[in-house]
Amino acid sequence: MFRRVMWLALATILPAVASIGYLHNSQAAGPIKIGLDVPSSGSDAFEGTHIARGVQLALEEQNKEGGIGGRQLETALGDNQCDPSVGVNSARYLVNVAQADVMIGSACSSVTLAVMPIIQQAQVPELDVTATSPKITQQSGVGGNIWKFRLNLNDEMMDAVFAQKVLAKDVKSLSILAVNTDYGRDAAGIFQRNLPGIKVLSTDYYTQGQPDFRALLTKVKALNPEGLLLISDYPDAAQIINQGHEVGLTGVKLFGRGSVATNDLLKLLPDPSWAQGAKEVNFWVPGPTARSLANRYQARFNEPLNRDAGMGYFGAETLIAAMKDIKGDITRKSIRDALERVNVTISGLGHVQFDDHHQAHYPMYILQIWNGMVRILETIPT
Amino acid sequence: MVILAQLINGLATGGLYALVAAGIAMIFGVSELVNWAHGEFLMIASYLFFALYVLARLPYPIAGLCTMLLMLAFGALFQMIVIRPVVHRPWQTQLVATLGASIFLINSAIVVFGTFPRRAATPLSMQNLTIGSLSISYQRLLLIGLTLFAFFVLHMFIHRAKLGKAMRAVSQNRDACVAVGIDIQLIVLTAFAIGGSLVGLAAALYAPLGNITPLMGIPLTFKAFAVVIMGGFGSVNGAVASAVILGVVEAFTIQFLSSAYVDAMSFLMMLTVLVWRPFGLFGRQVGI
């Protein structure tokens, strides 16, 4: 009787165990899901859209080569609208519903900081490619959130260098206009601490996407600064330059931190000479080393490669390099561990390796708008 | 000179707020319905103007006039498709309908025009009138002048024309209007059409001065609502007066306090007015 019960139990349990093994294997053979935690609507949609296209191109190219370990790479989109309250929900969607294995984002510093506790709780690695607030690095890696990584350089790394190498040489007085976000306020604070010998006449914050800057620019004009530092992305920066021209704020030297010295900004100016000489520090620019990528991107999306699309591509490439290095199953944990080990040279960007605070280091660029084009003045190692 | 420059900045900004807010106030006056998609009317109108002026290369006055006429039709169509089915429903249903329409319009613009901002600069927006240190583009002078003219025409229409008088009557006593045979549906449709044409004018005047983006209507919607509440919900004159006051207060807040306090000042002003006059500056419960 006992033997019969044992056989019956085995006959029931074995197929069940076998089916669990089968299910596990079939799940492992499914696609690797990369969550895109970026704004595809809202005030920063232009940024998220380009990051997503860059990621898409990298994944398509890798999938043509057979994916990773025979598994295809696919994306799941969570639109964070560059709004922390929306971003928290879209991140929860990506980790809990879409079951992303790894995420790229959140693109905006305020959203990134809001989402960091969620990825830590869910134990999902996330790689940032454009958010620049230094708080993200301070709170990542050793002693902080071990699931957060950042590929792009942060404001702490770039702004002090730009202040000393460029601003200190070019002007004696300065007004600062910064977007009223974590990124804008943090960057303005770093500049203010690193401008010895320069008189900061005013620091004003504006709402991203605000339609009218004329009252603000009239105030700046009355202060008569030698330079105007815009901590802005190109849509707002273009508005400021256009409206500055209207209120007669001409002859002031322009500086930027965000995406000011870019081809996108030039497209929004009726006359490119209005931004002649504008200088900016940035974490990447589509230069000669990225010509092949620029051509492939143009062919795929019928538009020129810009900084955000390039960083999206490099972010995906970094993840791919990390995942290729994984010996066993590709899981959230193994991807995180592989990102900590990653040590790769990415064509068009540079050498990528994350430090203790999960921050990558590669050269920064000093850019300038000159005769309607963006030129690289200097490349500075970090 | 700085004071004068800021006064002009405030008047121009106030003029834009007024063109958006007048439509909201008028629509509420005759239908007691809050149109949360009204800011998106301005966005749609701006893209229409961009299509006519930049893509179709129509002369500026014709592109502007066509934008107004198309928006007049858009306003009427919006009333028939979105508003009419919910007009007798509770306010919550109306709120969801207009908010839903707002989200639909924003996302439609993203799909059709993309996320990259568009520009529709005119020769007037590129040339400035300079007097001493004061510099203002001819486009903004046109904006201030035509806004004043538009409100004069609107005032005359509401107070002199038969349809305008009917609109005032509906805003004051709807039941009495039904009893004497006034077609309420036609009045509401007219309010939406006029509201649409006003934002069409705002787009033709303002789009050359800034970026055209799918989200451009949102900040204006909030400011316009603050203006409408301050002026007295449903009062067009109140909305216009409040818009001008708000624009000027904002400009002087930036000049003498800080840009960081602009929004706080706007809503503090609104709250102060409501404490002082609970039904707004031009104080009746409804009525255009």
TrEMBL record, chain A:
Pfam families: Peripla_BP_6 (PF13458). It comes from the Bacteria. Signal peptide: none annotated. Keywords: Signal. InterPro entries: BCAA_transport, Leu-bd, Peripla_BP_I. Residues 31-369 form the Leucine-binding protein domain. The keyword Nucleotide-binding does not apply. SUPFAM superfamilies: Periplasmic binding protein-like I. The keyword Signal applies. Belongs to the leucine-binding protein family. PANTHER family: LEUCINE-SPECIFIC-BINDING PROTEIN, PERIPLASMIC BINDING PROTEIN OF ABC TRANSPORTER FOR NATURAL AMINO ACIDS. This is ABC transporter substrate-binding protein. It comes from Candidatus Segetimicrobium genomatis.
Automatic annotation (TrEMBL), chain B:
It comes from Candidatus Segetimicrobium genomatis. The keyword Transmembrane applies. Keywords: Amino-acid transport, Cell membrane, Membrane, Transmembrane, Transmembrane helix, Transport. Belongs to the binding-protein-dependent transport system permease family. LivHM subfamily. It is found in: Cell membrane. It comes from the Bacteria. GO terms for biological process: amino acid transport. GO terms for cellular component: plasma membrane. One of its GO terms (molecular function) is transmembrane transporter activity. Its main location: membrane. It is a multi-pass membrane protein. The chain crosses the membrane at residues 6-30, 37-56, 62-83, 95-116, 136-158, 178-204, 224-248, 260-279. This is Branched-chain amino acid ABC transporter permease. InterPro entries: ABC_transp_permease (IPR001851), BCAA_transport_permease (IPR052157).
